[in-house]
Design a protein that fits this description.
mainly alpha; rod-shaped; 2 strands; single chain; about 5% strand; 2 domains; two-stranded antiparallel ribbon
Length: about 80
């Protein structure tokens, strides 16, 4: 094995270790802003049931309704 191949192997291993460490950091101890939307709702929130029709609604749509950002029952899809 030549010196250049050895250097490329070491460099590739360092890049791989850095990428893996970054991924683990983001998944385990990531910043709080990655877990919530701008309205403060967790990204993995289940749908909620409409009280009259039982239709499943996105939490974001419900928040926009109460904030007054929807126009006459317009549906918002994400």
């Amino acid at each position: 094995m030549t010196s250049g191949q050895w250097q490329l192997g070491v460099f590739s291993a360092l890049v791989g270790i850095t990428a893996l460490a970054t991924l683990v950091y983001v998944l385990v101890a990531g910043p709080d802003y990655l877990a919530y939307s701008r309205d403060g709702v967790p990204h993995l929130t289940p749908k909620v049931a409409h009280p009259q029709t039982g239709e499943a609604l996105e939490m974001g749509m419900l928040i926009k309704h109460y904030k007054g950002e929807l126009e006459n029952g317009a549906k918002v899809y994400y």
